[in-house]
Protein 1
Amino acid sequence: MIKTRCAAAAIAALAVATTAAGQSVEERQAARDVASRHGDAVITVMGTLKARMSRAGRDQPAPDQAVQASATVLDPQGLTVVALSAIDPGTLLGKNPAFAAAKVSIETELTDVKLRLADATELPAKIVLRDSDLDLMFVRPVAPPARPLTCVDSVSPVFNVVDPIVAVQRLQELTGWGTATALGSIEAVVDKPRRFYLIALPMTSGALGASIFNTKGQFAGVLTLRPSSDSRHNALNGMQGGMLQALGMVPVMLPAADIREVAKQATER
């Protein structure tokens, strides 16, 4: 039986190649500074995932699941972006050709959505926009927050190959809701059909939805998944490669400029 829980665990555990070698003392200090200044803008989206699965037209039981994912606050009113596949893996699995060939269909619904802030405050939230092509979901508080929320800046930096990056993600309940921070680098810049970046990060900080910054602390993008039919484009190695190749996906950093462009639609709803 195909279980959404298994898929969620696999996707949440994905990581990219480590690049610890060559990091300077200055870069490591810059990463600490980025996490200290901007860590509160990296929060958690929580919810309950309801799944409906069928194989060859026959329904299969799928219990509700509590789901959590690291996310990025884009403005003081609480508009937040999260990797869609990190919080709703059924969206990804539903597009997998192998599932279609096996006559397996998956439908998911995310309910009871909340934003858990860095200070442990939980705000009821609603989904305002999904973009499955870019692997993004935008949510905002149901009611205006009592105070402006900490958010990332509005600068959208551009990168070249080998430029350093800083990944910040919000850990989950098991690890005390803290932040994880790591230095990485840009491995490749892809411009067509739209710009995205292949990146290298230590394995412990490669979770989907991680917020990516440059060493100046400017918000650079979010780690998402992108369809890939060419295994040569897979930036992963070893145990990671087989899993994502089977899903036909590759992890990439979607630039902040693209995220903000899509976010304009979310602010109008």
Note: The mean pLDDT is 81.
Protein 2
Amino acid sequence: MRRLLLLAVLCVSGLAAQEASRTPVESAAGRTEESDKIAVWKWVNFVMLAGGLGYLMAKHLPPFFRTRTGEIQSGIAEAQQKKRDAEKRAAEMDARLNALGAEIEKFRTQAKAEMQLEADRIRRETADQIQKLEQQAAREIEAAGKTTRRELREYAAHLALDRAEQRIRARLDQATEGALVDDFVNNLQRQESQN
């Protein structure tokens, strides 16, 4: 930046020197002489300016371009690395997706097998429960049959007793009844005397 400022000062001083050397001449020959001097100074200024700019560009542009080229190359390398990473992640995702289909099929197979095992277990438990219920029903039917047979025997015995009582009452008269009572009392007395 200092050199650029120094170059600008030199250019301005060259122009100032040119203006100071100029004298007003009114003749036609003076004008051409003056215009030749102006043209020479203009060329000198142009050469100085072009030289200064060329020097500055030669000094500062190559490092700038090298730095910029390095940045661009590192950006390209970084982009290529990111591209490789992205491709690697995409390949991993594809592998996962492919494996996911296999995993889903594996889960389906496992679920089907587990459902079959569960259905078999439920069938066995249901068959066991049905067998237990059948056994319990058979026991209840047998118990009900025994109870009914006992009640039927009791009822039959009761009916038989009632029927026997009716027959006995029909055949029993006063004299037979007295003889039976006397006979019963005599039996009791004999048993008492034996004891």
Note: Helices lie at 2-21, 28-171, 174-194.
Protein 3
Amino acid sequence: MSILNLAYSDNSEINYKVSKFPDGQQSITITSGIYNENIPVLIKSRLNPFMDLELIICATQCLKEMGVKNISLYIPYCIGGRSDRKFVDGGINYIKTVIAPILNSQNYKEVIILDSHSDILEACINNFKKNTNVDLVRFALSLIDNKDGAQGRTAFISPDAGALKKIYDLAKIFKAENVTTASKVRDVLTGNIVRTELPTMNLDGIEQIVIIDDICDGGRTFIELAKVIKQQTNKPIYLIVTHGIFSAGIGELNIYFSGIFCTNSVKDINETNIKQLNVF
């Protein structure tokens, strides 16, 4: 399989040139690297923001024009990953009616996404393949205590019931015997989160606590959860999120977390307290 890497051109086995026209149109020209159209091609790209999708489609059509028939797409993070329903009257289901139809029109052999947020996303995209966050958690744990696995030293916390199955799967892999699920209490009228609740944890033998989830946008959910954890213990707290958007910055997150771990699925981050796993 040959790689066409739109995220990092230096890592691309297929060479290309990106052009941008005065009206904003982007285009791609493949300059070398296609030696046999029968060899499958994997396009690697970020899909955040929407303009990334234009380059993905241009690259796909370039390959098809050159006779390549077996094309797969690797987009670790899919824009609108949480927009999996129509939230208000007059709105849209962004994944189902905007993103998925465009991707599906290209007839990819596989569309590979890392730790997707929603079953809706998985159901809407044809030939979907999911990569798990196991490598990220292994990466984070190795840096937290220089050992491959939790081995009873680390407590895993799920920020809500929606992430619980993934947390338990990870706990089995890394031999974490202590798993706790937090809950968000919402206002029945507005739907806004009014408080975070966490059962009393048994922290015997625990050296550190990790919160694991798929996406960190502004980070308020994790900050409020960390506040509740600190009411029970002064042990260090770490945050492991697959997709780090950090739209509100990391200043307040740094107050509560001894370390933050994410992939570079959304962007490269140069912050002392953030360690990233390269997924491209």
Note: The CA atoms of residues 16 and 31 lie 5 Å apart.
Protein 4
Amino acid sequence: MEKNLQSTEAIKKLQTLVSDIQTCLLITSGKSGKHATRPMAVVDTDSQGNIWFFSNIHANKIKDIEADQHVQLLFAHPGKDIYIDIHGRASVIDDRQYIKDKGSPLVKAWFPDGVDDIALCLLKIKADEVHYWDTESSKAATILKTAVSAVIGKKLEEGVHGELHF
């Protein structure tokens, strides 16, 4: 079933889906136009639908974003059959107060000095296009529905998919 969502409802759906997954692949292009992909852990999905990540200011992804701000985020949780494809624009935020506000003890896993590390910055992704797929049921329920559909010859209702517009 297709279900496109708008405004606040779309942002709440994005926040829920992202919080279930927490890790995505960030795809950048940079000057070369050749795609580079790396896993990223989400720091926050804010009330405007922006997705935030910590990064090292000297990382190649930052150089890519400075050359071309257009990025893609791919989220997947096969266990729950949740998938999100986001095309957006990235910006690098090195404001120390923003970094402290978004900080947590987990930052020290990558940056020993935590939020005080001078190489620590934030990536803010403003979504331009969001496509999602969500079964809205457990994996076991999906398997059962598939089996029942096959036995009785009824088309399987595959969950919900659509676009999110902020």
Note: The longest helix spans residues 7-21.
